[in-house]
Amino acid sequence: MNDWYTRLEVADILGISKATVYHYAKQKKIIKIEDPHRLIREVRYKREEVDTLAAERQRNQPMGLRPSELAKQLGVTTQRIYALIRETDLPVDELPVGDERTIYSIPDETAVWITQEIERTASVRGTRVEFYDAKFDIVLYQLFRTQQGQDMRVLRNDNQEWGFYLQSRTWIPFTNGIHIYQYEAVYPIHRPNSRVKGYTDFSLPKDLQESFDFLDFVYQIWGIENIRIREHDTHIDLSIKSGEIELSIPVPEILTESIIKRFLVLGDVVIKEGEWTLISGYRRTTFDLPNNLLDKLQEIAKEKDLSMSEYVEEAVREKFEREEKME
To answer: Rounded CA gap, 168 and 146, in Å?
Structure first.
């Protein structure tokens, strides 16, 4: 066994960047093996010091969840978790890692509070992170096709990993489906972002094939930029930005007007040849706020990944619910 590690091995063992490895050596936390004649291509570090530091860090490692891990479990952004950490006096462990960053670890008590707070303040409509993965540029239930012509839909498993289920319930990770089995997307999912004029809301039962045909149609016409989705056990909540839109593809025959109206929950849809008009179930209003309150409203809404209208709606609903419980 070698009595040294390479820089990459040290970074992997300690869970730090290669730049931090350099700083550790400069601070004498680990010992770099000198090679004045440059006989060895890779920089090497003494195994004993690296193993000692790794053991020490393991003893001091907090046992809670990382913010990114909790965010993944709850289906929210990591920034949302950090925002809630700043709002609470409950404990959060900090572990410095090198010179440039700190690892945060969330104990069980704090994780429970964060989970409850996210559930309490959940938006009426889904947020982007709930149905879209920017890394792979894919969206929930997006239609892909195999080389043999078989249709596959993008899903997430119990670990919130993206991929596909075969009919046998065998799980295919997304990267395997694309690179090994060569699944291909059937349609694009992006369209220009429209200004929000309210939303028209639909509920799509999962036991109807027409629900997924409607989703395919919506992804192509409006794109992910103009919709919100929230998944439930039995149905999918779908909100589409209201207004007129010209149809770039024909409406599938299976999507009759009666089916569309059946899906409709709030608002209305006027269907014409080559054009749909979605009417919001909301009525626009205005009210005056002091500048400092308006700035605070914008800041909080941004932290929650909501528009100001959505945040105000959420806050008013919560206020009414609390008052009803007190009556």
So the answer is: 16
Query: CA 256 to CA 205: how far, in whole Å?
Result: 16
- Alpha carbons within 13 angstroms on the beta-carbon side of residue 282 total 18
Digit-coded pLDDT (tens) for 48-65? 888 888 887 666 665 678
Range ranked top by mean pLDDT from 59-63, 109-113, 305-309? 109-113
Closest CA to 250 of 223, 278, 271: 271
Q: pTM of the prediction?
A: 0.58
Q: What is the 3-state secondary structure (H, E, C) of the chain?
A: CCCEEEHHHHHHHHCCCHHHHHHHHHCCCCCECCCCCCCCCCCEEEHHHHHHHHHHHHHHCCCCECHHHHHHHHCCCHHHHHHHHHHCCCCCEEEEECCCEEEEEECHHHHHHHHHHHHHCCCCCCCHHHHEECCCCEECCCEEECCCCCEEECEECCCCCEEEECCCCCEEEHHHHHHCCCCEECCCCCCCCCCCCCEEEEEEECCCHHHHHHHHHHHHHCCHHHEEEEECCCEEEEEEECEEEECCCCCCCCCCHHHHHHHEEECEEEEECCEEEEECCCCCCCCCCCHHHHHHHHHHHHHCCCCHHHHHHHHHHHHHHHHHHHC
